[in-house]
Each structure stands twice: as structure tokens, then as C-alpha cells.
Amino acid sequence: MSEHGTGTSARPEPAGAGEPATPADAAAGPAETADNLRSQLAEAQDQRLRALADADNARKRCAAQVSRAEAEATARVARQWLPVVDNLERALQHSGAEPEAIIEGVRAVRDQAQGVLAALGFPRRDDAGAPFDPARHDAIAARPDPQAPAGTVIEVTRPAYGDGDRQLRPAQVVVARAD
């Protein structure tokens, strides 16, 4: 690196770059110095354009990699749901069966779907009896309940899946209130 910090390849420094000017340097003249400065400017502009092109190419490569990763993740999740869809198809094919058999089949498919969500890191939460937490629950109603302390979840109308930062949705709940 030259003492000017440009990091360019070693080149003769222009007159006056680090030494006192001599009468011979002055004779080289302002035209030669101007030509040298123009050359340095052109090289710096070329380096800048190359750096911009490299940055743009890197951005495009990253965007393509992110897009491929998203597509792969979506396909992995979809593959996990295929058995659930297959079992729903089977249940519809047997819709003429006894109601108890249909109910049992629907429960089995629901359990399978909950298993897929749990495997993806979003297990179903049972919040009945838990203290109300606005980060985990959406209160849709409050009612007196002599069996439960005020501020306790007494009914879950829509369950939550996941927890903390990995919560797909909060539970919709009814909360006990004091009379």
C-alpha cells in the first residue's frame, strides 16, 4: 500500500508526492502531472464500477439462494401435510359409514395434523386454568366463576400453537373475573 492509502499496485509516484520538488520535476510540467492525475482518476472510477458490479452480483446471488431456501422449506412442510390430506380423502371415501367411525376417523386426522404442527415446533397449548397473559392469550370475554380466581383462563375457545417467540397464534380465551 502506498503512503497515500490507496492500496493500488506499486507505481511511480507523481512528482512532489513525497519529496521536495526539484527543478527537473518542475520542468516535467503541469501537463504531465495532470495526465498522471487523470490516469489515477480513471483507474479509481474503474475500480469503483467493478466494486459496484461485484456488490450487485453478490446481492443477486444471495436473493437467489434465499428464494431457493424458501422454496425448499415450503416443499418440506407441504410434504409433511400430504399424509393428513390423504387421510382426509380416505375419510371422505367412507362417508357412508357409521357416524361413530367417521368421528373416530376425523379425530385421528386431527391428531395427525397436530402431530405435524408439533414436529414443526408449534405444539398445541392447553391454557385452561393458566393465568391470563396478554402475550399468549386474546381475551374474548370475561365472566364470573366462583371456582376460579380472577384473571384465570376458564375456557379456551380457540387453542394456541407454539410458544414464546415461536407462537403461530395466541389462544382465544374466556377469563374469570371477580363478581
Task: Report what the structure shows.
By secondary structure, the chain is of the alpha+beta class. It folds into 2 domains: 30-124, GrpE nucleotide exchange factor, coiled-coil domain (Hemagglutinin Ectodomain, Chain B), CATH 3.90.20.20; 126-159 and 169-179, Nucleotide Exchange Factor Grpe, Chain A, domain 2 (Roll). The protein is 51% helix and 17% strand. It contains 2 helices and 6 strands; from the N terminus they run ααββββββ. The chain has helices at residues 23-93, 99-119; strands at 124-125, 137-144, 153-158, 160-163, 166-169, 171-177. The strands form 2 sheets. The protein has a 3-stranded antiparallel sheet. α1 packs antiparallel against α2.
What can be said about this structure in brief?
This protein is an alpha+beta fold.
Layout of helices and strands:
Elements: H1 23-93, H2 99-119, E1 124-125, E2 137-144, E3 153-158, E4 160-163, E5 166-169, E6 171-177
Parallel strand pairs: 2-6
Antiparallel strand pairs: 1-4, 3-6, 4-5
Helix pairs in contact: 1-2
Q: What sort of overall outline do the alpha carbons produce when their principal axes are compared?
A: elongated
Main sheet: strands, sense, barrel = 3 strands, antiparallel
Strand content: 15-25%
What CATH architecture label of the largest domain applies?
A: Alpha-Beta Complex
Overall CATH class of the largest domain: Alpha Beta
- Derived from helix and strand composition plus strand pairing, the structural class reads alpha+beta
The count of DSSP E runs of length 2 or more, i.e. the number of strands, is: 6
Helix content: 40-55%
CATH topology annotation of the largest domain? Hemagglutinin Ectodomain, Chain B
When the domains are counted, the total is: 2
Query: What is the residue-averaged pLDDT?
Result: 86
Distance between the termini: 80 Å
Strand order of the largest sheet: 1-4-5
Q: Unreliable stretches, pLDDT < 50, 5 or more residues?
A: 1-5, 7-11
CATH superfamily of the largest domain: GrpE nucleotide exchange factor, coiled-coil domain
Calculate Rg over CA atoms.
36 Å
Tally of individual helices: 2
Order of secondary-structure elements: HHEEEEEE
